[in-house]
Amino acid sequence: MPATLLVEILTEELPPKALRELSEVFASKLHAGLQKERFLSNASTVSAFATPRRLAALITRVEERSPDTEREVQGPAISAPAQAVAGFARKSGVAVEALKQQQTPKGEIYVARVRTNGSALDAVLAGLADAALKSLPIPKAMRWGSGSAQFVRPVHGLVMLHGSRVVTGSVLGAASSNRTLGHRFLSTAPIALDHADHYERTLAEKGSVIASFAARRASIIKALERAAGKDAERVAGDALFDEITALVEHPQVYAGEFSKDFLAVPQECLVLSMQQHQKYVPLRDKATGKLLPRFLFVSNISTGDPSQIIHGNERVLRARLADAKFFYDQDRKTRLETRVPRLADVVYHNRLGTQLERVERIRKLAGTIANGLKADAKAAERAAFLCKADLLTDMVGEFPELQGIMGRYYALHDGEPKEVADAIDQHYRPRFAGDDLPQGNVAIAVALSDKLYSLAGLFGIGQIPTGDRDPLGLRRAALGVIRILIERDLPLSVHDLVDKAFAVHDGKIGGAHTDLEMFILDRLSGYLRDRGYSALEVDSVLSVGHVRINDTVRRIDAVRAFIKLPEAQSLAAANKRVVNILKQAEAKGENYENVSLEELKEPAERALFEALTAASRRAMPLLKQGDFTGYLKSFAVLKSPVDAFFDSVMVMVEDGEVRKSRLALLADLRKQMNRVADISKLAA
Question: Measured between alpha carbons, how far is 282 from 595 in angstroms, rounded to an integer?
């Protein structure tokens, strides 16, 4: 009879940042294993549970025994020797007399009906649980005690309960039972579970544990909102909430305070100190957006008098913030520009030189790009010169995440122009998918130069990403370049940018211009597909050649508009035919360059020539204006003359001069129609 199944693994404290994923993967893998072994019905559901010291899965409507099955196994032909037939019957576990005959396209054969007995849940559950645990995304497993079991943390208990019955078995050295553990401090004795359906309720009532990760997280967020009050808002993201949830079983939210004197320190430093080191939730004023001298924290203990807990956490935070203030005060005693020469003592890459050499090259490239954007080249070069200086500050040494951010604060303190200071901060952008882009052409020039310098340098020494591995973040850098060029609509050529990025290395690295350009275009293709464009549309535009990246979206939109025209498919097919004809002609060594089209005599070829000339005359001004849609639509009128040409004109005729003229006409047709996109790629 079907019943709810509970499998719980009791461990030492699990990695908090991975807990949610571990629980979800464990539950889904166990569910998939039971489904494969036919213990589940279509109505079965799975729920994942996770606390700091447990992973659990609850699956409904699990059978105690999988059903027997019968399958048909095909054997030898009826003309096969008796010995072969007897061997097939023996292998299938049936008598020769029980074999049936069946007609197939290859002739008549013997068929055996093989019956397989179902399995008992007790016989397979431990193996399925063990397989699910071994499939978890664990970077490094550990061993404990004298056994050979390995897991992310030592395992101390196992619950396998089918309804109210304990399923016998052993997983990672722990034997199954119906006894679980509650809260480390609020529950003192093991808890006996009377039924799998009562798991969550029993843990809450007898163990002071909220077993559901999602329920515990929701209760934490609700309590934080209540504690923050109506005038303050929490400074925290999903990752911090997940980590806090993974650290507690019985969450209690408390509020603490710190001295207003610490608010003189940049709020990014204070927030990072609270979030990263202590897992606290900072608060800021809803009206002003400024940080408040208050914070919230989640404790794993509930008490009638939390004053000692609050004071203890305030004392710990005070020490952390005092360190941050000390770093900030000390760092400001040394100007950024005086730190730059010391970058010569810091190796950027053993084959690319020091951080100082890196900065000098980035500065040169930033000035060149700024000139191309008609921006202040001197401001861009100054920002590039200072952009890595904060790597030598105490604050960035303690919090590497603040590089660039602290550089801006220190630059402003040194009296640098705001444009320069902002560029120092923003040259790292975008740091991740969906991040903000740099604002202003000076910041954009420095951001592009930083990314392009790294791409060119690392490609030049052969450090090209392979497979899923990209330890140096080159894919992220290339995507950053693409986002800046497209979303800031910058009229810069990738080809030219790549050449300039290699040029600043002064020939000290190998030439990998083409490889890098193709790498960026591959990232561009993925970026465009992620925006909803089809592979066909993207390929048609990127096949044209050195297209400016900021034009690609407008070109693809033009292709979409062209495809909707009734003439589109016919013209695309004709273009494909033209491409094939010209390819064959070139393979035969045909030379049709500099051939006069005035020699065309046939009415159909003259009509196509005149229609193409007129359409091109109308279209070219539109192309110069960037009206790619209008340009493509201008050639819709060619459908009839193109169809008539292929219906009545033979291109590859014996007369060499006529043949060359017709090939030249088709080459001109291909050239004019495919300036925006390769229309032949759109043929069905």
Answer: 75
pTM of the complete model: 0.83
C-alpha to C-alpha distances, 662 to 317, 589, 599, 655, 668, nearest whole angstrom:
82, 15, 9, 11, 10
Encoding tokens for residue 519? Answer: 């790498």
Report phi then psi at 342, rounded to 5.
-70, -10
Those residues with Cβ within 8 angstroms of residue 408's Cβ, 6 or more apart along the chain or in another chain? 421, 422, 424, 425
Where does residue 122 rank: exposed (0-12), middle (13-18), buried (19+ CB within 10 A)? middle
With vertex at residue 283, the alpha carbon angle to CA 281 and CA 286, rounded to the nearest 5 degrees, is: 145
Strand duo 155-162 + 174-177: pairing: parallel
- Check: CB of residue 20 under 8 Å from CB of residue 213: yes
- Stated as kind and residue range, the H or E segment containing 397 is helix 394-398
Could you read off the pLDDT of 243-286 as tens digits, one per residue? 999 999 999 999 999 999 999 999 999 999 999 989 999 999 99
Q: Under 8 Å CB-to-CB from 460, ≥6 apart: which residues?
A: 502, 505, 509, 510, 511, 512
* Residue 242 CB partners (closer than 8 Å, separation 6+): 17, 19, 20, 217
Question: Residue 537 corresponds to which tokens in the numbers above?
Answer: 């549309």
Residues with Cβ within 8 Å of 576's Cβ and at least 6 positions away in sequence, in order, are 680, 683
Placement of tokens 């293709």 in the chain: 525
Please give the helix or strand (H or E) that residue 529 lies within, else none: helix 513-530
Cα-Cα-Cα-Cα torsion 374, 377, 378, 379, nearest 10 degrees, comes to 80
Contacts of residue 402, defined as CB under 8 A and 6 or more positions apart, other chains included, come to: 268, 269, 272, 390, 395, 396
Task: Of 417, 415, 420, 414, give the one whose Cα is nearest residue 404.
Answer: 420
Token code pair at residue 172 = 């990672």
Q: How far apart are CA 368 and CA 352, in angstroms?
A: 21
Where helices occur in 104-237 by DSSP H, the ranges are 121-134, 199-207, 213-228
Residue-wise pLDDT for 383-428, tens only, equals 999 999 999 999 999 999 999 999 999 999 999 999 999 999 999 9
User: Hey, what are 14's tokens?
Assistant: 């699990």
Instruction: Give the H/E segment covering residue 624.
Output: helix 603-624
